[in-house]
Amino acid sequence: MKESKEIFLRYFRDLYESEKTAYDLYSDFLVTSKDEVINKKIEKIKNDEEKHMEIAKKIITLIEESA
Amino acid sequence: MKLSLGSKISISTVLTILFFGTIATLSVYILVQKTVIDLEKDGLQLLAKNSTREINRLFFDTQQIAETIAIQPELVAYLQEGDYDYDVNRLLDFYNIADRFSSIYIMDRSGDTLAATDQSFIGQNYAFRDYFQTALYGKSAIDLAVGVTTKETGYYISTPVRDNDGAILGVVVIKMKPELISQLVVPSGLTGVGHVMLVDNYGVIIYSDKKDRVYKSLGGLNEFERQEVSKLKKYADLKLEGLDYELVYEKIKSGKKNGIIEFYDKADREEEILVFNRIGNFPFFLVYEEETESFSSSAVNTSMLLSLFVALAAIMAAIIIVALSRNYLAPIKAIKQALDDIGSNKFGGRVIVKTGDELGDLAKALNDMMSKIENSQADFNQKIKKRTSDLEKFNRLMVGREMRMMELKKEVDRLQRGISRSKQMSCKEGLTEGLDFEEKVIRELESFYIFKVNNSDILKKNRQKILRLLKILIEDSKRHYNVINEIIEKYERK
Question: CA B320, CA B316: separation in Å to the nearest integer?
């Protein structure tokens, strides 16, 4: 079955939301955790999740440009 | 002790009256004493003067009688011609009216008594007597002596009997009874407690109401005076002891005819006043003696009377002032009651004072003040009432808002508790959730997204770009998975 453009947009919007959920999750973790070493690593992951949100947005833009 | 205003005024006034009354009493005492003593001195001097005048008149009259007898022709003839048949005694008896004199007698030039009303005198020789010697010199004389014949004291008044040529033939002598003199003096002076003394020119007391003073000297005779008196045989063999009145005797000897002396009598132990007066030109002095204390008693009595008046005045003043002050100060109680009412926030009462003085003004001012306060309070209560009403409205509004705020607060609390719960999630649980997420993302990207993108026609144009981006996501997620997994393992090792 061939998906339409809107379906792809919904897929990647879900991906964007997942990345945002992950971002929030790590943000809450950083508030809770007091271990600096761990927090440093999680902070890096949180930043990556922020980039992933940008990547998701960029993919959405590419999908919109397609067809 | 709390004293009322009335009591303070009364006590102050009474003390003031007593203070000035005491000063007045003392002043009056001093002034009255001085005045009374001065008056008494004047009175004593007057008394002495009058008594002296009377004695002087008696002496003078007796002397006149003696001189009258001396010029009787029968007597002159009797002495001149030796006409002893003439009854001289009858002549002498004629002049001795009512036996007024002790004796009237006639002496010849040799001092022999030729005739006398008292027969015991006849044949006696009194040539040694001073009064005889003086008469022989042609002068009338008066002397006092104790009779050598009668041993009685007498006043001897002598005068010469002359012939027509003035030659002295003999002497007429009248011997006066001492009682005649003593009748003329007031024995107890002015006050009834004084004394009187009649002294001769030697200061010898020849009469006194105090018998123990008679024939004593005022100040004591010196040796010369004692010999002189002895030679004249005036006082027979009497000792003539001295008394403590030297001051008077000194004045008499110095020739003073009268005077007044204040001195302390050591014998009587009292302050005394002595007034002395010479009796005419005769060698006798009348001395009055008074105790100063007897004069002072008048001043004391006057001052006591005044003190009594002052004390009565103080008592009367106290009674009157207490009564008046109670009357005058009565409005103060009403004013105090009004002030107490003000203190109790009662402003409705009014003070009724119709004295028309400062208290009345004070009461009026107080009433005005209470009236203003009452009005102000009414206005204030009105404002308070309105303000209370406004506040009640505001309060109701605020209560509504408060209720809403409380509800909002409860909501906030509920939300905060939810957040707090998620924050309280344990680190491990958070990491596990992250690990599951990463695993899920890897699986979905590799099995779903890559597949869909690769098989989509519509993404043909940007497929490679999208796939490249997806690979970045997959690689990152795998790296995340490993990192999180390592951390979880570390937790578990701990």
Answer: 6
User: Are residues A59 and B466, on separate chains, in Cβ contact within 8 Å?
Assistant: yes
Question: Which range has the top average pLDDT, A22-26, B180-184, B253-257, B364-368?
Answer: A22-26
Buried-exposed string B323-343: b where 16+ CB fall within 10 A, e elsewhere = eebeebeebbebeeebeebee
Half-sphere exposure at residue B299, Cβ-oriented, CA atoms within 13 angstroms:
21
Nearest 5°: phi and psi at B202? Answer: -95, 5
Q: Does A9 touch chain B (CB under 8 A)?
A: no
For A23, nearest residue in chain B (alpha carbons): B434
Among A29, A35, A43, A60, most B C-beta atoms within 10 A, so best to mutate, is A29
**Cα radius of gyration (chain A):** 15
Which ranges constitute the DSSP H helices of B424-462? Answer: 427-444, 450-454
Q: Do B452 and A11 touch (CB under 8 A)?
A: yes
CB burial string B388-407: b at 16+ within 10 A, e below: eeeeeeeeeeeeeeeeeeee
How near does any CA of chain A get to the CA of B381, in Å?
A: 60
What is the domain range of residue A44?
5-65
Helix (H) or strand (E) holding B141: strand B141-146
Helix or strand (DSSP H, E) at B327: helix B292-343
Q: Quick one: which of A18, A22, A4, A27 has its CA closest to B435?
A: A22
The upper half-sphere exposure of residue B283, i.e. CA atoms within 13 Å in the direction of its Cβ, equals: 19
Structurally, chain A folds into a number of domains equal to: 1
ipTM: 0.94
Residue of B49, B41, B48, B45 whose CA lies nearest to B296? B41
Specify the DSSP element, H or E, that contains B106. strand B101-108
* B272-299 tens-digit pLDDT: 888 999 988 888 898 888 887 776 776 6
B98 touches chain A (CB under 8 A): no
Task: State the CATH number of the domain containing residue A13.
Answer: 1.20.5
Q: Which two tokens stand for residue B324?
A: 């008046």
What separation in angstroms does the CA of B101 have from each of B47, B65, B174, B430? 26, 11, 7, 173
